[in-house]
Amino acid sequence: MVSATDIAGSVAEQLADVEQANAEAVRAAADLVLGVIRADALVYTAGAGHSLAAVAETFYRAGGLACVYPLYHPDLLPLHGAVPSTQTERRSGLAAEVLSERAPGPDDVLVVFSTSGVNPYPVELCIEARKRGAAVIAVTSRACVAAAPKRSSSTLVEQGTVVLDSLVVPGDASYPPDAPRTAPLSTVVNAFLWNLVLAQVYDRGTAEGLDVPLWRSSNVEGGDEANAALLAKYGEIVPRLR
Question: Residue limits of the SIS domain (predicted)?
């Protein structure tokens, strides 16, 4: 019988490997996000299916960046229909539809979370963003991209200005180790990679005197007051804050 200690050790080992393998890429991703803050621009974040958990982690999150514009379509969320959500991210043309509301420009950065990295929606988001001059941070698994059936003209790995590799194995599951069937890791690793980027952005940004716009928890003293200025600034350009 597996113990909690076994699972914890396995996850800790995965995160340590991810941090080591992505050291240069995390720094490059932080460079791009710092450029957004200097330009007073936006970080667009996107995903589909369970990768939307990572998008939620980037948006209106205590300790998270305030200059985030989440890209979203309700049909991509499994809670609105599990099988249709899979069909939706495989539909070509949805990215252009989602970006018709607002699209990233040259001063912005697009962050796309997709473990498989091959479906039309995430790939076409990257292609459209790059056409507009935006840099792309691709958070994916190189192993999963290599193993997945190709469903678009390109892949997230090919489209990323910077690629953060979750090192997740094809299928996402991690247990049992010799034939993984359960205990998927992508959600945990995606959040970890994003937090590595945020930590560098904060340290390097404050060291150069940047005002890094970060949300406070509304459940601590002074949190609502601290967030009010951020809501006033970004509420008009990020509709989902309203």
Answer: 33-207
Least Cα distance to 6 among 173, 187, 181, 177 occurs for 177
Region label for 120, one of left (φ > 0), alpha (ψ between -120 and 50) or beta (otherwise): alpha
The 8 Å CB, 24+ separation contacts for 211-220 are 212/37, 212/65, 213/37, 213/65, 213/66, 213/67, 214/63, 214/64, 214/65, 214/66, 215/60, 215/61, 215/62, 215/63, 215/64, 215/65, 215/66, 216/62, 217/62, 217/63, 218/62
Helix axes 120-131, 82-89, angle to 10 degrees: 40
Q: Which pLDDT score is estimated for 1?
A: 58
3-state SS, residue 60: coil
189 vs 187: CA distance, rounded Å = 6
CB burial readout 57-76, b (16+ within 10 A) else e: bbbbbeebbbbbbbbbbeeb
Q: Are 107 and 39 in contact (CB under 8 A)?
A: yes
Task: Report residue 157 as tokens.
Answer: 């790995």
Residue 139: which pLDDT band, with cuts at 50, 70 and 90? very high
pTM for the whole structure:
0.95
CA–CA distance, 148 with 3 (Å, rounded to integer):
31
Query: Residue 70 belongs to what H/E stretch?
Result: strand 68-70
- Give the 3-state DSSP-derived string for 141-168, with helices as H, strands as E and coil as C: CHHHHHHCCCCCCCCHHHHCCEEEECCC
